[in-house]
Amino acid sequence: MAHEKITWKCIIPGCYKSAARLENRLQTDCKRAQILKQNPLLQKRLSLSDINDDPSSTLFADDLSNSVIGLNLHVFSLAELRVVTSNFSWSNLLGEGGFGPVFKGFIDDKLRPGLKPQPVAVKLLDLDGLQGHREWLAELIFLGQLRHPNLVKLIGYCCEDEHRLLVYEFMARGSLENQLFRSYSSALPWSKRMKIAVGAAKGLAFLHEADHKPDYTAKLSDFGLAKDGPEGEDTHITTRIIGTQGYAAPEYIMTGRLTTKSDVYSFGVVLLELLTGKRCIDKTRPNREQNLVEWAKPRLKDPRKLTGL
Fold this sequence. Notes:
The chain is of the alpha+beta class.
């Protein structure tokens, strides 16, 4: 789908930085490079515990920017992202989830010298939503360090006062949910469903490994619930059970015990949705069919009933 390039005008007074401010930014970048050179430990993989995650701390933004040195992320100002999204116009709204609304925008070197011209998706943390600052930080840290063809690319972020935003590459085909369940979408051919399933599996396999195009290439996104996860048969215990209803593994919900098998269960639910074209939870269906996994279990166990899927 062709995008309409935003006409770049000074929508917000002072949005284009003066030569002095640009010079200050260059000096800051040089200072960060020097910090990285003098501190090799900053080059190791980051985790939440490496960063002061207290958003009320006056040092948080500086600590964060120093910690992500070397991750090749752009630090945007709120004013810049207002320009990018036409002041978060509802006409640019792509969707909304537990994290908050996501807006389409466009960045290029008119916004800031050196930026690659490209459409982007700007995710704005809803301060009254289901997720919060720590989930935002987790997504920033994990996607900022990981690069894979089947993981959505994080381009940059904004941390200004209480505002928390993430800037991603724009996925022209939208989400799998939209492709499967929106009434305006034509049914996905089986060949594309297979391509999506294989792509998602590759992304998940990459995330589970110890070493670490705009058509229907599946890309995993939404890492707000991510932690430095367990490897192999190891587990992680959490006291805060959060996740999308229907996708979380039963043992995780009951015990808080998170393993790599928990992800495999969630991936299996997505495979069922791809196979049946049905949502994992749908209260509009008859009682015995509202939970897709429970409905599918007897059919998966009996080859003669598989055609009923």
